[in-house]
Amino acid sequence: MTQEQRDGLNDAALALTEPIIEELLKDISRRIKKAGAITDTAEYEIYRAQALGESKTALTEAIAHQLEISEEVIDTLLDYVVDNSARFEDSEYLKQLSEGYAEVMKTRTAEQLKNLWATAPDGKTVPIQDAYAKALDFAFRQTATGALDLNTAIRRAVGPLAKRGLRTIEQKNGRSVGIEYACRRYLMDQMGQLDNAIQQQNHDRLGCDGWEISAHAACAPDHEPIQGRQFTDEEFEALNASLQRPIGRLNCRHVADPVLIGVDTPVYSDEELTQMVADNEKGVTYNGKHYTLYGAGQEQAAIENAIRQMRRQVLCDEESGSDDLQKHQIRLRVLQSEYSRFCRATGRRTRTERLYTAGFGRSQASKAVWAYRKKSEMYADELIKVHEVTQESIDNIPTIKLEGMTPQQAENLREAHKTLLSALKGKSAGMEVGASFAQDCIVRPNDVIIGKTEGYVRLRTHTDSIGTMHTHPTGTPFSIDDVSAFLMDEKLQLATVVGNDGSVFVLRKKQDYDAASVIHLWGQLEKEMPDWKSSAEKLLAIRRRFLKEMGAYGFEYQEFRAQRR
Fold first, then answer.
1. pTM of the complete model
2. What Pfam families does the database record attribute to this sequence (predicted)?
């Protein structure tokens, strides 16, 4: 197999294990919510016994179902390995070899999926049924004694599970690792050994006396000095024994092909291998930080893992009815946006197959930001005066002059703002309208979307959209909801708000904007100004401070007041 083919196999374990993890998290979230709501000890003991029995049955069924799928996947993977490794000829030996590996892999994979451990509320890794029991006990005990409210108890009981997933115990040192990692490593080890065994057969049959290690860009530091080189049989055996990650093992992307030393010319010249090293070191720079090409790959994997963890948390929140649902949905969208920007800026392919989480579909993703509306700001918004749209306010809309914008674009943008306010004539004073626009900044009357309820309009963007605009009846700046929607849509570069009084507010992304830091900034401001919802003045103060301080993270914010003409 080539390293590219090995890359294609690398996500098999995720597909095998993720459905079980999600089934557990949803099940335990539902049960913990019920446990935390029970106040009578006797009633709880009955519920606990029933819940643990039901959960064990449900989990056993989920594992059994997944093991059937696992066998099919393993058979397919083995066929793929043999087909792509047996380059010279087929033989009965290869068939026996692959059948032997199939039996070993199915047995070991089944053992790993059945030997599930999890993290309890106290942070200790315990067998899965013990984790269930401890989480239920924690939620009941904390709420029954009044130590914690129901939502906090649920969050603390489920949190460790959502964050760390299911675990398996490493027998040699007793530490626990994620079940996805353990299965993936095991599968890739076995696939690599099968590939190596086939290559050894080819080596012996052809009378070869050495090996050539493949080479690829973005190589890990420990393999970079040896990739692309040829070694005699003795040298290769000694080398592989000395490596912490032997060639063809432990997720290694390298393969070793049999060669005749002194006869077969290496695939890559010394100059080409030197250039690979230089290109790797040159790497890429993102948000001011330098990454080797290998390091960029590791960072991409870290973001992918964070997305999977946050998706699990969203599933838990949905099942338990957590108040943190919207917050975690927004964080998920931020991570997804950051992932797309990182891959685009560093020239890496997005790996959607690694972002998939069983049980997490489009319905969960689409709810992420919009459900946040009115949750945070509606109370103070109601205290702010609503302006009527007049012809004077339409005529007084200012021309926006931004760096890099042509005079024609600026004029088109002003006309678009006038189109929005004109669409509000004759409608309720609290109604909002909006539109998206392309590079030309043109918005026509039939492009305008009218909100279905007062104080809110849901905007639609298109493939060529570079910005959005909408109205604020109060003539106030962007809300946190507005900022969130702008952050999450990576193709948007510009957002504007038009007040019913003709004022215009502008928010623009710069090249190296940092969405994650902006969300963190909002959290910090909420802590500093905990009573920001109590009055219109405090609401506007935190909004303006937030928008101004976003400038430190790659955003440009400006206000343009209505101009009498």
1. 0.53
2. Phage_min_cap2
